[in-house]
Design brief:
Blueprint (H helix, E strand, L loop, with lengths): L17 H21 L6 H10 L6 H12 L6 H24 L3 E2 L2 E2 L1 H5 L1 H22 L2 H24 L7 H26 L3 H29 L2 H4 L5 H4 L5 H9 L2 H12 L5 H13 L2 H20 L6 H15 L3
Antiparallel strand pairs: 1-2
Helix pairs in contact: 1-3, 1-4, 1-16, 2-6, 3-4, 3-8, 4-6, 4-7, 4-8, 6-7, 7-8, 8-9, 9-15, 9-16, 12-14, 12-15, 15-16
Length: 338
Amino acid sequence: MGVVIPLEESKNKLASVKPLVDLTKADMERVNQLILSKAGSDVQMIPEVANHLISSGGKRLRPMLTLASSCLFGYKGENHIKLATSVEFMHTATLLHDDVVDESDLRRGKSTARTIWGNQASVLVGDFLLGQAFRMMVDVGSLDALDVLSSAACVIAEGEVLQLSVAKNMETTEDDYLSVIRAKTAALFAAAAEVGPIVADAGKSGRNAMKSYGMNLGLAFQLVDDALDYGGKAADLGKNVGDDFREGKITLPVILAYRRGTQEERAFWRDAIEGGNSSDANLEKALGLITKYGTLNDTIARAVHYGTIARDALAPLPDTPWKSAMMEVIDFCIERVN
């Protein structure tokens, strides 16, 4: 079940994260070793829960951005390893918490930790990982890096609460939605990219460039994710197509379809999302309305817009393999719809 999303002006050769993966490979091996070390505990359930999610095959894009953004500015030390690991622990903690809040059963095609160990264990292990993340930030000894990442942690929590406040509310506006994804997703992308130039002593302009790059890349990434929920394949998503619909999540494809619909169609959306009537038949109808009003293409168009801002943020920086790889990540995030 799904909708084909044509991407205008698509390139012959699809973009890839491979250049970034190759450049960060040696450092990522060290990050992975530190992840396993810091996820350890004498309390047996902690490494069990943590490793269940850590080993589930995510791309580790956020820590790679920390490594790449530090190397982009010529960093030669060790602290970027600890910061990249901190970023990944923050991300993993938010996933553990997210799955509890959203009552999700699948994450990257595997049962979520909460379905195996329960909600309490998922929340508490998430808290443990956040604690470990902050200990590593303190070890780095950079107040600026600590400020950026701790601020991001607060913003992410605010985004979670904001999402709760607009959940299953069809009067949610596009601005409300953007506020949620800016806090929940883009803030960590921005922080992950910004701490690189901080440890590299790159100055204000470098920090601003990376923060803008990360923020807008994160917005593009989440917009595409939300489009894929109605137009992707379960095997690619690591979850079922239409999970957002079944959970009553208000995402941009739904917001636009609701706004553009007839009175009768808006009544359907209120019944399906607010009333929780998310049957397979209603999902089919929702997909039909989303197709009718072209809201997936418009969601992707907005992702392209933010991708362009991310590209412009990098543009003034010297041309290096690091810059080129980070540019290609923008295209990769958007071209996932193909």
